[in-house]
Specification:
single chain; 259 residues; alpha+beta; paralog of FGE (formylglycine-generating enzyme); five-stranded antiparallel sheet; four-stranded mixed sheet; 4 helices; globular
């Protein structure tokens, strides 16, 4: 236990002296009928703790990443209402206006974003990169979850596998947010991110604004879902799927670039 505490202190120092923003007042803005949280630029330690038996090779090594430009990230996952308002239909299995849209693949998310950008007259909306997603999910933490290491507290922040496959997704924003005001970053539905997937990418990832491999077969999704066990909701956990895959527990949230 003592050695793990020392390791976490070292990892925090490695991450650098860029100040965390968790203690600042959160700035919320609405764009296109969606509520966003401003995420300030900064550096963090991306990846898992090698000393934990649950950590997989694809989460290693932990490495310093710097996000060089602020961005706005959706306060919650895209809801079925937001999807319906823009797309005119609802592909979700568990239909309710304020549940996250699901049964959408990576390509569907791109179609939504393309239409959103056309409606708004620009190209400012996109999926977050994997690095941007983890930076926002951690909210200044170096622990397993944004709130600490204790999975017993996870139910305060996330919908996850207590109900197993007999449950459903839940309305967004009904659990505690992380310290940066983002909700459902752990659980409810997995979230597609922009990157192609490479299990070895962390070994040569650039420090500044990594965008993932140039090509691949699979796309990354993050965050865990209402089906998943607590260990699968860790901030560092990486999963991947075919860009055409649609399941009842994968959705997405949208990033808006700053001016």
């Amino acid at each position: 236990m003592k050695s793990n505490h020392i390791i976490k202190i070292i990892l925090t120092l490695v991450a650098g002296t860029v100040p965390w923003h968790a203690a600042q007042a959160v700035e919320y803005k609405s764009f296109a009928g969606m509520r966003f949280v401003r995420i300030e630029a900064g550096c963090f330690l991306m990846g898992g703790d090698a000393d934990l038996k649950e950590v997989s090779e694809v989460e290693l090594p932990p490495h310093r990443v710097c996000i060089e430009k602020p961005f706005y990230l959706g306060e919650t996952e895209v809801t079925q209402k937001q999807w319906e308002d823009l797309m005119g239909s609802n592909p979700s299995k568990y239909k309710a206006l304020y549940k996250p849209v699901e049964k959408v693949n990576w390509e569907d998310a791109q179609t939504f974003i393309k239409k959103l950008n056309a409606q708004e007259g620009g190209a400012v909306f996109r999926l977050p990169t994997e690095a941007e997603w983890e930076y926002a999910a951690r909210a200044g933490s170096t622990t397993l979850y944004s709130f600490g290491d204790d999975p017993k507290k996870l139910a305060e922040y996330a919908w996850f596998g207590n109900e197993g496959y007999h449950g459903t997704s839940k309305e967004v924003g009904t659990k505690k947010p992380n310290d940066w005001g983002l909700q459902d970053m752990h659980g409810n539905v997995w979230e597609w991110v922009q990157d192609w997937y490479d299990p070895n990418y962390y070994h040569n990832s650039p420090e500044k604004d990594p965008k993932g491999p140039d090509s691949g077969q699979f796309r990354v999704y993050r965050g865990g879902s209402w089906v998943g066990k607590a260990i699968n909701l860790r901030s560092s956990l990486r999963y991947s799927g075919l860009p055409v895959s649609r399941t009842r527990d994968i959705g997405f949230r949208v990033l808006r670039e700053t001016e």
